Amino acid sequence: MTNTKALIDRVAPDESKGSKQIAGKFIASILTKSFTILTGGSGTGKTALASRLAESLEKSRKRSGNSRTPFAVGDVIHGDRAQYSVASITPEILTLEKKDGSKLPLPVAVIQEWNDAWDSAKISESDSVREKREVVKDGSKFDKNAHSWESHLSAIAKSGKGFDSSNDATNHAIVPVGADWTDNRQVLGFVNHLRTAALRDAADDEKRPVYQSSPVLDLLLEATRNEDFPFFLILDEMNLSHVERYFADFLSTMEQRNGQLKLHSEGPPNDDHYRLPRFEGDPLGVPSRMVYPANLFVIGTVNVDETTYMFSPKVLDRANVIEFEVGRDSIESFLASPHEYPEPVKAEEGVAKAFLALAKKARLDPDKGGIEALSVAVSEESNEHLVVLFEILKRGRFEFAYRTANEVVRYLRVCRHLAKEESDTALAEWEEVGWKNDLDAQILQKILPKLHGSMGRVGRLLGALSAYCGGATRDGAFAYFPSGANGSGITSSGLPLQDALKPVETATPVFPKSRKKLETMIEVLLEEQFVSFIN
């Protein structure tokens, strides 16, 4: 069992910095679809929520050959002639950055050799950098070129941070997206023909071009080696650059069954075993193609300001979009008792595997081994709402297609399964009214995020959607369009947009959260003549 309630408590330990309601929607979303976008103001806890889920599901797994680096991103390392900072860390690579912005990836295994030499007093501070290099190189299992960056390696060894071979490999990577990401090299890396290296155990120490890896690719390689555990790629501020430029391969491949990421075209044709080393003595190597890992979950965080880019429908259509808002009550509660998040507690043995198994099962249809289908009553009523919403959106030229419809139903199935897993009472409550709350969440996360435009483009559409979510009938919603529900011939100008802010007479909101968001969008549109869901 996934023990979802306990997982929510770990991910959102208190109400002041992360509501359990958002955490529940986030977990249901990531189970339904392996790509989720978290949007909201800076400091609202988006990255913290994503990383806490990953850390909670991190499984103790000893690595063979290499150990985990004890450094953290941002750590400062003082060398004899320069100062470095840790730019990124993966299980295989630690990347240093100088003040001028230049970066250098260093193999963790080579760093460990320098640390071991320092700890055993084979090298000391009194030795020159070259003397240290010669000592370490003589006893190294790697090629001498692996020690070419002796100044950097010496600075790391001198820092005094040793390695613990019992440490676990991480199951996630937090990757800050740069504004200069104009292609996929920052994501999938590239072949560097200016450097050569040999794979570990390569015949005759054969030298091959080095594959300049990335934290993303290193995580993918680790995920392929541990297929029974979930891995999380967290793209921080992913809209600082055009997502379609650097992430197009992922967007396409993640939708394909057994889709493959093309990495390079080196080696003999059709040789699936030919690999390029990322560094001297690389035990894994980079294949020419890689099957997209079924155990990979991608989470993007988004801040919206004048420096960021809007998402295209291609991106939004493939993700659940969860908006973070901070209300007055949350701020008051936090100010009354400000505190940091406690360290996340790892889930019980078996929960990580159960989480991944449920996610994989959710991707299958019920008749093909997937989780249970919706009851007839819930299926019929939810389908009726989806059809009306489709008609309204089609009238406003923002209709959704099969993928969205399928994923909304899949989300409801996941939510039903989680309620059933909790208790018979929770399942009964879900069948009666809970499904409407979850369909409301899906309208917010899957249907409304693509809406943006001027008064003329989306004004009437927002009015119709707001009316329907507020409890109006189909015809009542279509009254905001010219010609009403007939859809042809402009016989009237339609209801004024301001009317959509009024409560629907003799009705209570069917989808209150979506109604509230639509009211906010309408208010912005009336004031500024342009609006976007993500603002």
Write the layout of secondary structure elements.
Blueprint: H1 4-11, H2 20-32, E1 35-40, H3 46-56, E2 76-78, E3 83-89, E4 93-97, E5 103-107, H4 108-119, H5 129-138, H6 150-158, E6 172-176, H7 185-188, E7 190-197, E8 208-212, H8 215-225, E9 231-236, H9 243-246, H10 248-253, E10 260-262, E11 275-276, E12 286-287, E13 289-291, E14 296-302, H11 313-316, E15 320-324, H12 328-336, H13 351-362, H14 376-395, H15 402-422, H16 424-447, E16 452-454, H17 455-469, H18 474-478, H19 512-528, E17 530-532
Parallel strand pairs: 1-14, 1-15, 6-9, 9-14
Antiparallel strand pairs: 2-3, 3-4, 4-5, 7-8, 10-13, 11-12, 16-17
Mean pLDDT metric: 85
- DSSP helical segment count: 19
Radius of gyration computed on alpha carbons: 26 Å
State the distance separating the first and last CA atoms: 38 Å
Strand order of the largest sheet: 6-9-14-1-15
How is the main sheet built? 5 strands, parallel
Shape: elongated
Structural class: alpha/beta
Query: How helical, in percent, are the residues?
Result: 40-55%
Instruction: Indicate the low-confidence ranges by residue numbers.
Output: 61-68, 164-168
Total beta-strand segments: 17
Strand content is 5-15%
Seen as an oligomer or otherwise, the chain set is single chain
